[in-house]
Specification:
By secondary structure, the chain is mainly alpha-helical. The chain has three domains: 10-90, Rna Polymerase Sigma Factor, Chain: A (Orthogonal Bundle); 97-162, no CATH class; 166-262, Orthogonal Bundle (Arc Repressor Mutant, subunit A), CATH 1.10.10. Helices cover 72% and strands 0% of the residues. The chain has twelve helices and no strands. Helix 2 packs across helix 3 and helix 8 (165-196) packs across helix 12. The longest helix has 32 residues, at 165-196. The N and C termini lie far apart (61 Å). The model is unreliable at 155-180 and 259-263 (pLDDT under 50).
Amino acid sequence: MLANFRDAPRAELESLFVETLPTMRRILAGLSRRQGMLMHDAEDFASWAISRLMENDYAMLRKFRGDSSLSTYLAAVSGCLAREYRVTHWGRWRPSAAARRAGTLGIRLETLMQRDGVPLAQAAQILRTTGVTNLTDRELAELAAHFPRRTRPKPIELHATTIGVTAMERSDATIDLEESAAEIQCVRSALRNAMGALATDDLQLLRMHFADAMSIADIARGLAVPQKPLYRRMDRALATLRARLETNGVSREHVRSVLAYAS
């Protein structure tokens, strides 16, 4: 077999294509599984990718220069085709800031539910089957509650003229700012509601300690009350505040990450 197929006759490329087709199908199947594609989507992707491999007189095979094994080259080509397929069939999709903070699991869950329109129970099953997580449906639902509401992207056509990198980076930065602003507003609203439900004395205690940076000893002296009971009041007030926030789907880590981003 030639290491370089640039000038190979069509008959040889056709023979090579048939020979490598099982390998290509295995690579495409693996890509589909890792990306959590449903069965019919995986089949459509495989058919599309194989037809792309045949286009323009097997142009993609002709580009092989022998710098690696053919299977490695096909894996790289398949990865590029997967990105092209996502753009042309699903539109440009970018995970939200909230999903990125949750790591790979957050990105995969948001992609399945909001880009692909997969119901939570089915998305959860895909993620567990592919070894991404062992979380229950309920735990995944709690994670998904932090994702901003988004409309599914529209498929687009790729043209020879593409948007410049600078313009795309500017668009990405704008998306980040919009998402972060919405999350900050959501957290602040949840904080206001939770603090509004506290007793007046407890609210005053929290404000003096956190907003005014006063120690418990300073607060006790300022209010002319015993110091020791203030520690118990502080613990109860914080526990109540945390419980009310979690009821609204806002965790302590979420508050910290959002407010740190806003500062």
